[in-house]
Amino acid sequence: MQFRELLSIFECRDGRTDSPGRRLWRRFPEQIQEILEPHLNSRYKSSQKEVNWSKLKKPVYLSKRGSKFSDWSATWAGYLISKVRHELASKVFTCCSFIIKHDYKVTIYLLPHILLYMLLGCTPAEQQEVTEEMLAVLTAGDGRGAECGQVTASSLSQLSTQTVFSMMSHLTQWSRHILYSKPKQNESGEYQRVVAFLKGIPQDVLAKASLRSKAYTRALMHFEAYILENKENIQDHLTFLQRLYAAMHEPDGVRGVNALRREEPSLREQILEHESIGLLRDATACYDRAIQLESDQIGHYHGVMTSMLGLGQLSTVITQVNGVLANKHQWKSELNTYRVEAAWKLGKWDLLEDYLSSDRQSNTWGVRLGQLLLSAKKQDGETFYEKLKLVRKEQVVPLSAASYECGTYQRGYEYIVRLHMLSELEHSFTELQKQRECSTPSLNQLPPHWSDRLEMTQNSFRAKEPILALRRALLSLGPQPMSTEMVGECWLQSARVARKAGHHQTAFNALLNAENTHLAELVTEKAKWLWSKGDVHEALIVLQKGVAQCFPDDKPLTDPRSLQTKSRAMLLVGRFMEETANFESNAIMKAYKDVTNLLPEWEDGNFYLAKYYDKVMPMVTDNKLEKQGNLIRYIVTFFGKALQFGNQYIYQAMPRMLSLWLDFGAKVCECDKAGRSDRQLRQELGKINTVVSEHCANLAPYQFLTAFSQLISRVCHSSDEVFTVLMTIVAKVFLAYPQQAMWLMTAVSKSSYPMRMNRCNQILKKAISLKQSLEKFIGDANRLTDKLLELCNKPVDGNSTTLSMSVHFKQLKRLVEEPTFSQILIPLQSVLIPTLPSTGGANTHHDAFPGHWAYLDGFEDTVEILASLQKPKKISLKGSDGRSYTMMCKPKDDLRKDCRLMEFNCLINKCLRKDAESRRRELHIRTYAVIPLNEECGIIEWVNNTAGLRHILTKLYKERGIYLSGKELRKLILPKTAPFEEKLRIHKEVLCVRHPPVFHEWFLRTFPDPTSWYSSRSAYCRSTAVMSMVGYVLGLGDRHGENILFDSFTGECVHVDFNCLFNKGETFDVPEVVPFRLTQNMVHAMGPMGTEGLFRQACEVTLRLMRDQREPLMSVLKTFLHDPLVEWSKQAKGLSKAQANETGEIVNEKAKTHVCDIDQRLQGVIKSRNKVLGLPLSIEGHVHYLIQEATDDKLLCQMYLGWGPYL
């Protein structure tokens, strides 16, 4: 019926004559047309009687017709439809009002649209009615339960609040759309009316309602709007903000609030902080004090019990609840849930039954699980399944309320975990019943799917711990002796999860409970726990005693699990000995050697042994070349062995192993040339060459590919024997991965130094001799590179903005379209960086590039010329997969630096992924492919969906009518000699005032729904932080508004153009004096807390990680800086090219000072104009110093105006 009327309203039909109705019909997909066809011409009319709305009691919410969600939504929607004055909309909605009564899903969908059309034509009184209805919904829960914070909203209030939110969002998005896309209409009455209506619902009311319905990101969005609109002082609202961040489980936010707070925090605020970082014992102490002060506040008791349960002190919970209830009987329905939960976690079924029967009212999650477990213990199938159905239904209501807007998954995750638990509970119950029928109860190992299911949950303590707790209860349902060891194993898992989340107090309790498990594993976990909370010496003692006790020397081990456990423990002993620095090097070396003797085929053992040898080498050999050969052979051997059995350490082991070998070879050659030739040295080198050749045969080619640029950088090696081995390795990689290797070798094969070119061709010839078919591929690739170089260097006249492939680059087009042209891979980052296998070592069958490969099929005709100084060109490549890929061709720019820096960033990303703290914050650097084609041109993968900071801000300033043109700005440039006070005055009083912060607007527009807004802004804060730290350490400059882009899908910050490195910015005409870009717009867009909270914490995590990984990072940077093919710093004018010509290797004189500078920064040494200031700073101190420098007006006012210090 409804379809029939809707179709007739829009005169929708399928005819021969063109009409709006026919065009609409054609827009339906075929399968929909089939369903609707019969309704096109039917004659039915629906008989609806008019409803008289005048007697309706308002607000409808919670009145007689608004006590159930379906009633309230239908009644209110019906009433609003009667007030729509827009002719077409009124017809459509009236037609739908019949369905509204029967299906509230349709109501929820239509309400936002109904409200909008109603507001466009309503009277002020009607508008006021709507406002009151909404406020009735939003403030319904304000009065009650504000104190104890335990009230969960009813399903009516959850669903109706969410409906109001959806309506508000729709109006906000509509008004933004009108404002930005149709500026003429924003003077109209309709637009003004909607804006006035939106203003009538205060932001702080929305924020509180959102907090109540657990829509935390929305609460934050409204809260910040409230602060901005009313210019509130953030100090007055810190408690609300802290509650929000605590509820969102965002400890960085909680810490940020603490940093902003000027007074001593109250008890409540201290408790929130302790809880958010897992210091539950301290929280309990605070609650205890609160109970002394106000013994009649039930909220404090809730807090104590929750903390105790979190710490796992279950027996204490039971005694405490019983004690409290003896005096205050009226609290039973509130507090019973805690002792119920404690009872089933302890497996005390008789107590559980008592507690459940003593109070029938409460139905919290803990109680529900207790009821289910009890009926499972009693083998009462009927009650069990009946309850299960009910409990599942209860968990789905909040999940469905959350599902009305984007980003539900995070908001509903708690309920998803609960459904996960119910599913495991059901499975275990059916298994138990099966076993009872066969009367052979055998739970001798954990159900096999448990470990997989745990893997799939989010990697956080609060997702995994409830599941593990339930599993322990499930295991104790069965017969006792079998299950104790398995329960112990679950406790051990809990200890691990808690330790990794930094909840040391909870981990300690789990360790106490895990006593029945595999002793050696328990000892190792305990030592790691002690280590992670800083008791280093204690950890070592526990571990040494444990190893001696669990693995006495007289009993040889045979089974693999024990061997593995023992080796793990012994390796930890070695590492702890090394880090505590309590032992001399021979003892430590012996500890590492014992591990490799016990398990010779384990990568960790071999790696740590080699690493330690490497560490003590300078000391043992007094830096004398003669003594080093033997040691280097050992180190190279063990690094190679480690790589044979795994890839965990490949980014440290491979570059270091190659450097040691290649540098030793070069030194031996130097001695020969200087006439100090030494037979013993040449023999040593011969032995090392043999070891490397063996590695070349044993290791997989993709392992060498990870260090390919390092291998290529040494093709001009002075020793012929070394070059022969090097050539074998490179040729092996080339055979296995010709597509990737070819792109990585181009720049050297097109070099202007003859020696480099010749050596490169030698390697290619060797590859062809091993596989004939490569000859055609190499030839085609060479021709392609030549043509791309022509494209890069094509001179462009001043005013043209495009060129055409078919006119200007005929030969390139023709070449690629030849029918016999080889398949050549489009060089995207995803197919250039090898994926390492998760399982051990050099397995040769591993596919290192599982991604999607696209080969070059042709070019789009248009070549766009970009506006910047060197006139780079933007081209589109057609892939064999039918997609189009954009690349940028850059002339007159040595991209080898960018290329090496991308590799460095990829390495930092690998470290960030490994570290628990940075993984939890999803810290990473956005990288892209950079392919140098020769010493001064190259191609770069285009980063899609990004906009530059300057571009975003200019657009926003123009809209507000406060944009300053370049001409006006140029008038404000002061001469270099101008007094400092004048620069500061212009900067603060003119430039900054004329450019108020507007960047936060971009986030609200680009990410309209609260969850994506919040996650994009978090991504912005964190990605900016990571790159600020990495950029500072590397001395990256020239961060003007075009070199910092923002991704309009994720909000993260993307840096481009890494040419100004190693503090080169300090040598500019106007020297750069700030460590990174953190101008007023960037700070303001981080939210009302500014750099406190997410930004500062991410900076600290990144800097700490870079300090911890100082050695591997420095070893990679050294290989970059000593790369004899890249001139990091331009040579002085007097020197000719002749220096490099004979060998093609450049000696980077400045490299040593660069390495030294970076190393100092990683140690916390602060330098200003090359003078060291004071002692090295701690991580927190270092970050604080940098943030202050970057935001200091006294420094910003000295920056070059084109950099945009005022933006």
TrEMBL record:
Domain PI3K/PI4K catalytic: 859-1167
Domain FAT span(s) in chain numbering: 205-751
UniProt entry tagged with the keyword Transferase: yes
Cited PROSITE patterns: FAT, FATC, PI3_4_KINASE_2, PI3_4_KINASE_3
Annotated Gene Ontology cellular component terms: chromosome; nucleus
Molecular function as annotated in GO: ATP binding; protein serine/threonine kinase activity
UniProt feature coiled coil, ranges: none
Cellular localization per UniProt: Nucleus
Primary location class: nucleus
Source organism superkingdom: Eukaryota
PANTHER family listed in its UniProt record: ATAXIA TELANGIECTASIA MUTATED ATM -RELATED, SERINE_THREONINE-PROTEIN KINASE ATR
Family: Belongs to the PI3/PI4-kinase family. ATM subfamily.
Record's protein name: Serine/threonine-protein kinase ATR
